[in-house]
Amino acid sequence: ETEKIGNRSVNLLIFSGKITSDNIFDLNSKVKAIFENGVFDCILDISQLEYINSTGIALLLTIARTVEQNQGKMFLTRPTQFVQELFDMTDLSGRFAIVADLNTVRDQFRN
C-alpha cells in the first residue's frame, strides 16, 4: 500500500511468514508491481517475517537497489531476532537502515 507521510508518498510493504524459493516468484511480481506507481520511498515492515533464506535476501537487495537507483529511501522496521541475527552474520545490518518501529521511520520521512 502507498501512504502519504508529510509531502511524500511512501510504499509500505509488510512481509510475514517465510521468504523462500517456494514463494519468491509471487513476491517478485508483487514488488515489481508496487514500483509501477513511480514511488520509490519504501518502508519494509519485517516484524512478522519468521524466516528468510538467500532468495529472500536477494529480494531485499533488489528492492534496495531499485530504491537507490531512483533516489528513494528505504527503511526496514522491527526485524525478528532470527532475521536480525541473519543480517548480522551476513554483514547486511550495515547495508539496510533498520529502525525500531513505524513511527520512527515515519518521522525519518518527514525530515
Write the SSE topology.
Layout: E1 2-5, E2 8-19, H1 24-35, E3 42-52, H2 54-69, E4 74-77, H3 81-89, E5 97-99, H4 102-110
Parallel strand pairs: 2-3, 3-4, 4-5
Antiparallel strand pairs: 1-2
Helix pairs in contact: 1-2
Question: What attributes does this structure have?
Answer:
single chain, 111 residues, 41% helix
Concise description?
The chain has 111 residues and is of the alpha/beta class.
Structure description:
About 40% of the residues lie in helices and about 30% in strands. It is built from 4 helices and 5 strands, in the order E-E-H-E-H-E-H-E-H. It has helices at about 25-35, 55-70, 80-90, 100-110; strands at about 1-5, 10-20, 40-50, 75, 95-100. Helix 1 packs parallel to helix 2 (about 55-70). The chain is globular.
Strand order of the largest sheet: 1-2-3-4-5
Structural class: alpha/beta
Q: Extract low-pLDDT stretches.
A: none
Q: What gross morphology would you assign?
A: globular
Beta-strand fraction estimate: 25-35%
Please report the total strand number as a whole number: 5
* Mean pLDDT across every amino acid position: 93
* Largest sheet: number of strands, sense, barrel closure: 5 strands, mixed
Output the number of helix runs.
Answer: 4
